C-alpha cells in the first residue's frame, strides 16, 4: 500500500479535499457498464481530473470488453461531455477496458494484473447480480466470491489508497434498526459452511435449501450482500476499504440530465405502467416510507466515501481500525408509497393522463384486489396475443404482464416493511466537504425536493422506453438482413 500522503483536508477539522484526491489518480471500476457504474464513470470524466479509469468488463454474448466499452461510451449518458467538453475525445481515451472473468481465481491475465498492481490507487466494486430469485450458491459466487478475488488482487496494488465496496442498505433488512457497522452473524456456521454444504446438492435441492437458509431474509440477493460484508470484515480489514450501503437507487435528479435511467429494476420498473397509462395495483402498506436515492446522489456519495476512507487511514492512530460503513440513507424528507403514484403522475404531460393514472395505479393494503386485477389483466393479455397471432403478428402482452408481476412480487417485502438507521458517517462526511466539493458532489438527501424531482421522472422512463424500442427494432432489422 502506498504510504505517500495525499492532502484530503486537515486532520481534525476542516474539509475533505475530494478534487485533489482524484487529481491524476488511476481508478478501477467493476460493474462500470451497469446503471450505477455508468453514472460513476461519467461523473469521474466530467468533474474530476483523473489520469485513467480501468473498467473490468466480462465478455458477453461474444462481445469483447473493448466493444462493450465503446457501446457504452456512445450512449446518451455521455452526451453532456460530448457537447460541453472541448477535450471530450481525450477524456474518453482515459477509459480502458480489461477482459475479466470473475469465475476464475485470477480474474485478469498476467499482463493486465501487472498494470493494475502498478497503477491503480482507487477501487470501486460496483458489480453485482441483482436477480432476487437467484439460487443461493450462484448469488454467493457473483456477489461474494467475485469481491473476494478482486480484493485479493487489490492487496498487491502498490499505490492503493481506497476501496469502496458497494453493498446495499438492505443487506441487514432482518433488523428493524440498522447501524453503520458490519453484522457478522451469517447463520449455519458462516459463509464457508454454506458454500461447502451447497456443493453436494442437486439443482432441485439447492432451490429448496435456499429458502431454508435465507430464513427471515426476503431473497438471495440481500443475503449474499450480507455475506459479502462479513467476508470484507474478516479477510480484508487490513486494507483501506469501506462499505457503502445505498438504498433503492432510482433515476437521476440533475446529473448528467434530470430523470436519466437505463434500466427498470425495483421502484422504477413498477412505475412503467403509470407512464404507459396501464392499470396496475400493487400490494403493500401505503404508509410505508422507503429509503430512495437518485443515482447521481448515490454516485456523489460513493466518490466522497472513497476520499473519506483514505482520510481515516491517514489520520487515525496506527491501531487496528474497524471497516467504516456508510448507510447512505436519510431519515427526514421521505415520502410514503401511498403518495408515490401521485408524484410520478405529476410528471405526465397530459392533464387527463395525470388524473386517470391516479385511479389506474395504486398501492393496496389488501392482497385480494391486486390479485383479482392480475387475473383480469392476464386474461386480457392472452386474448390480445391470440388476436395478434390470427393476423400473423407476435404479441408480447402476456410477457409484459408477467415481467411486471414478477418484479412486483420480488420487491413486495420492501413495500411492507420500514426501517430506522444510523447514518452518522454519512452526515460527518457531508460536513467535511469543502465548499467547492459540496457543489461538485451534491448528495444531501434531506435537501431533495421530491416534487421537483418527479417532474422529470416520468419523462426519463418514457425516453428509455423509446430507446429500448428503437434498439429492439434495429435488432430485428439486423436479424432479417
Would you spell out the secondary-structure blueprint of this structure?
Elements: H1 18-22, E1 26-30, H2 35-47, E2 52-57, H3 65-73, H4 79-84, H5 88-93, E3 95-99, H6 110-119, E4 122-125, H7 136-154, E5 162-166, E6 177-178, H8 191-199, H9 203-214, H10 220-235, E7 241-245, E8 248-250, H11 266-270, H12 272-276, E9 280-283, E10 292-294, H13 295-315, E11 325-327, H14 337-345, H15 351-360, E12 361-364, H16 368-390, H17 397-410, H18 412-416, E13 420-421, H19 424-432, H20 435-440, H21 450-480
Parallel strand pairs: 1-2, 1-4, 2-3, 4-5, 5-7, 6-13, 7-11, 8-10, 9-12
Helix pairs in contact: 2-13, 7-10, 16-17
Task: Describe the protein's architecture and organization.
The protein is of the alpha/beta class. Helix content is 51%, strand content 11%. It has 21 helices and 13 strands. It has helices at 18-22, 35-47, 65-73, 79-84, 88-93, 110-119, 136-154, 191-199, 203-214, 220-235, 266-270, 272-276, 295-315, 337-345, 351-360, 368-390, 397-410, 412-416, 424-432, 435-440, 450-480, and strands spanning 26-30, 52-57, 95-99, 122-125, 162-166, 177-178, 241-245, 248-250, 280-283, 292-294, 325-327, 361-364, 420-421. The chain has a seven-stranded parallel beta sheet, with helices on both faces. It has a two-stranded parallel ribbon with strand order 6-13. Strand 4, helix 7 (136-154) and strand 5 (162-166) form a beta-alpha-beta unit. Helix 16 runs antiparallel to helix 17. The chain is globular.
Amino acid at each position: 500500500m502506498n504510504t505517500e500522503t495525499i492532502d484530503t483536508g486537515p486532520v481534525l477539522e476542516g474539509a475533505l479535499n475530494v478534487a485533489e484526491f482524484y487529481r491524476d489518480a488511476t481508478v478501477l471500476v467493476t460493474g462500470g457498464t451497469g446503471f450505477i457504474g455508468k453514472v460513476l464513470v461519467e461523473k469521474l470524466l466530467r468533474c474530476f481530473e483523473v489520469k485513467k479509469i480501468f473498467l473490468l468488463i466480462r465478455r458477453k454474448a461474444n462481445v469483447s470488453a473493448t466493444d462493450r466499452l465503446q457501446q457504452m461510451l456512445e450512449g446518451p449518458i455521455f452526451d453532456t461531455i460530448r457537447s460541453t467538453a472541448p477535450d471530450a475525445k481525450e477524456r474518453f481515451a482515459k477509459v480502458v477496458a480489461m477482459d475479466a472473468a470473475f469465475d476464475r481465481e485470477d480474474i485478469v491475465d498476467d499482463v493486465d494484473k501487472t498494470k493494475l498492481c502498478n497503477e491503480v490507487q482507487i477501487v470501486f466494486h460496483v458489480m453485482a447480480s441483482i436477480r432476487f430469485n437467484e439460487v443461493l450458491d450462484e448469488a454467493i459466487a457473483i456477489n461474494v466470491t467475485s469481491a473476494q478475488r478482486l480484493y485479493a488482487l487489490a492487496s498487491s496494488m502498490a499505490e492503493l489508497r481506497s476501496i469502496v465496496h458497494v453493498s446495499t442498505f438492505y443487506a441487514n433488512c432482518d433488523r428493524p434498526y440498522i447501524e453503520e457497522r458490519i453484522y457478522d452473524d451469517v447463520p449455519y456456521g458462516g459463509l464457508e459452511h454454506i458454500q461447502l454444504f451447497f456443493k453436494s446438492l442437486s439443482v432441485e435441492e439447492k432451490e429448496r435449501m435456499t429458502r431454508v437458509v435465507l430464513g427471515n431474509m426476503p431473497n438471495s440477493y440481500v443475503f449474499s450482500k450480507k455475506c459479502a460484508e462479513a467476508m470484507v470484515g474478516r479477510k480484508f480489514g487490513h486494507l483501506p476499504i469501506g462499505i457503502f450501503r445505498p438504498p433503492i437507487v432510482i433515476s437521476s435528479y440533475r446529473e448528467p440530465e434530470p430523470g436519466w435511467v437505463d434500466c427498470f429494476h425495483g421502484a422504477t420498473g413498477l412505475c412503467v405502467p403509470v407512464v404507459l397509462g396501464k392499470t396496475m395495483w400493487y400490494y403493500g402498506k401505503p404508509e410505508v416510507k422507503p429509503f430512495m436515492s437518485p443515482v447521481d446522489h448515490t454516485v456523489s456519495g460513493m466518490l466522497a466515501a472513497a476520499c473519506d476512507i483514505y482520510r481515516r487511514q491517514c489520520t487515525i492512530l496506527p491501531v487496528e481500525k474497524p471497516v467504516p460503513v456508510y448507510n447512505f440513507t436519510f431519515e427526514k424528507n421521505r415520502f410514503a408509497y401511498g403518495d408515490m403514484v401521485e408524484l410520478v403522475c405529476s410528471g405526465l404531460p397530459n392533464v387527463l393522463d395525470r388524473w386517470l393514472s391516479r385511479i389506474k395505479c395504486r398501492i393496496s393494503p389488501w392482497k385480494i384486489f391486486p390479485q383479482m386485477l392480475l387475473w383480469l389483466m392476464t386474461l386480457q393479455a392472452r386474448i390480445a396475443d391470440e388476436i395478434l397471432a390470427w393476423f400473423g403478428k407476435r404479441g408480447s402482452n402476456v410477457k409484459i404482464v408477467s415481467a411486471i408481476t414478477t418484479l412486483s412480487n420480488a420487491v413486495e417485502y420492501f413495500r411492507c416493511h420500514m426501517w430506522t438507521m444510523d447514518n452518522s458517517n454519512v452526515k460527518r462526511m457531508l460536513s467535511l466537504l469543502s465548499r467547492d466539493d459540496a457543489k461538485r458532489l451534491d448528495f444531501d438527501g434531506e435537501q431533495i425536493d421530491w416534487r421537483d424531482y418527479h417532474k422529470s421522472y416520468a419523462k426519463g422512463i418514457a425516453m428509455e422506453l423509446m430507446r429500448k424500442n428503437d434498439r429492439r427494432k434495429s435488432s430485428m432489422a439486423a436479424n432479417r438482413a
